[in-house]
Amino acid sequence: MVEVAVLRRHDLVYIKPGAWPGLLAGHDLGDLHQELACWAALERPTVLRGRIGGDPGDSVPLGLPLPPGMDRKRLAFACSPGGVARIASPVLLSEALPTAPDRWRAAIDALLAEGISWRCFGSLAWQHLTGLPYLTDASDLDLLIHCSTEAQAELATRALSIVAARAPMEIDAELISSTGVAVQWREWTSGATELLVKSLAGPAMTAREALFP
């Protein structure tokens, strides 16, 4: 059984086939019911989300972002720990590269050349995971970078600043500390002494020096 305490934002959560009917019950899915039955049958993942009112305290809170062809809805479920088959880290950017639009390739290649372990979420990750058409002309490149130290955060943001200045798409990236708290990369580069951060507990303000001690 999965330990809820070890889960992190953006983790991919795979559900046991027998747990899907219970997750879908009580949701007015309309025309999406067949699509989600297919999603379950193909063992596609969900993603860990923050808790909302009504989530049982011992449950695993999950989100399922749907592609534009399914109205781009984001569904919310609460699964018992026993219904979780396995957990996976977000997709490595290097693995998702073949799925990226051609016009993104040069920017992604430049990021990968930095030797940083970039991970991705958002449209690129979901299209890579499912084969469904999530990416549009307006899509951003959404990245995650785990940083144990301030020096690692500075290295990542320097690379992001250089690549983002000439990239054809917007780049949205989160720097994730060893405690799982995340800050948006432009927030970090602002130099502010108080930063808006995100965690499974929700958004909060924290002192800059406390983020990567």
Span from first to last CA? 33 Å
Structural class: alpha+beta
| Structure summary, number of beta strands | 12
Compute the CA-based radius of gyration.
18 Å
Mean pLDDT: 93
Q: Any low-confidence stretches, pLDDT <50, length ≥5? A: none
Largest sheet: 7 strands, mixed
- Percent range for β-strand residues: 25-35%
Shape: globular
Explain what the structure shows:
The protein is an alpha+beta fold and 213 residues long. It has 2 domains: 4-88, no CATH class; 91-211, no CATH class. Helix content is 28%, strand content 26%. Strands 6-7-8-9-10-11-12 form a 7-stranded mixed sheet. It has a 5-stranded antiparallel sheet with strand order 4-3-2-1-5.
Summarize the SSE layout with pairings.
Layout: E1 12-15, H1 20-24, H2 32-41, E2 46-48, E3 60-65, E4 74-79, E5 84-88, E6 91-92, H3 93-96, H4 105-112, E7 119-121, H5 122-130, E8 141-146, H6 150-164, E9 171-176, E10 182-184, H7 185-189, E11 194-199, E12 202-207, H8 208-211
Parallel strand pairs: 8-9
Antiparallel strand pairs: 1-2, 1-5, 2-3, 3-4, 6-7, 7-8, 9-10, 10-11, 11-12
Task: Write a brief structural summary.
The protein is built from eight helices and twelve strands. The chain has helices at residues 20-24, 32-41, 93-96, 105-112, 122-130, 150-164, 185-189, 208-211, and strands at 12-15, 46-48, 60-65, 74-79, 84-88, 91-92, 119-121, 141-146, 171-176, 182-184, 194-199, 202-207. Residues 8-90 form the Phosphoribosyl-dephospho-CoA transferase MdcG N-terminal domain.
